[in-house]
């Protein structure tokens, strides 16, 4: 399907090539910067009557639907710090059973959940964890393990599919303890699905090998499984099949599963008992938290199967990028496994920031060409790429709107390039 023949003509206002100021407002093309990009403030041309917004910035933008809000309003509650909130207790039992773990703990955020896991596994200041150099825990969680827990991190190279080279991983394990020169290796952290690498799913064979390596040296394995339910859906297995190779896991409820708040931290009973103390110290002990846990119950029981629709929509958009006649985009379709899509811009004159800016504003002539204005929100990302994330708020129809807008922006860019020659 040709981009050029599917869209009308017209020139974006302001001109297609952004000023540096506009690009800065709309985001930086750095893995370390996309959280700071904010929501584009580009209302489009004066007189734009109909505007549809397709928000692909993250699956964290999901909002609870009527059934979830009703469950929250009707939730039976108690004091969770005292262990007396029945809805929280039920959620924790559901999660533990689903993940194949002895126990689980309801925690406000994924960052706190990962930090608690590090604190419990690495009980002495100066202990060391081994993490991927592109992991969320290493890049996007403010170095909390060092800042708050006194835990040192050493990194292994994250491969394109989210895995590590096992020989390199083994080389990072310290063998000199209690030699006072070295930290003590305690923990290996993996991420599934892998955020920066575009929602990649860790192969079960890799997890099995990591588990064997950890056992050989007496280390624990923690999974940042913020989107592990996406991995389970992709692999067609229950999450317990994935998590049998880990000691502990952190699973986010407020991304594709649609809850407004919350993460489940799961592991052995003694681990969770210590995690309760860490949660309290970090300010994560909540009282009548059943109102939030009620949403989490629906997330785990009712929202997992629909993740497959997000995966299909991401693939549909990725294929449309490849079908564009003009070679503006590069996509590895084999790497589009779940709901996160990373694609590169092949045209030197069109940066990720500029592309995202024009996707996020309504251009002159757009309504005439497309029948309405369309704002598609996405972020410049790591390695001269763009990141787009599908979630329960994005339907197949929304995905088609995003494709139309992408085709329009591509056409505008090519037309302006031709006029400049």
Automatic annotation (TrEMBL):
Cited InterPro entries: ArAA_b-elim_lyase/Thr_aldolase, Low_specificity_L-TA-like, PyrdxlP-dep_Trfase, PyrdxlP-dep_Trfase_major, PyrdxlP-dep_Trfase_small
Keyword list, A-Z: Lyase, Pyridoxal phosphate
One term of GO molecular function: L-allo-threonine aldolase activity
Taxon lineage: Eukaryota, Metazoa, Chordata, Craniata, Vertebrata
Family: Belongs to the threonine aldolase family.
Domain Aromatic amino acid beta-eliminating lyase/threonine aldolase: 55-340
Top-level taxon of origin: Eukaryota
Source organism of this protein record: Seriola lalandi dorsalis
Keyword Lyase: yes
Full protein name: Threonine aldolase 1
Needed co-factor(s): pyridoxal 5'-phosphate
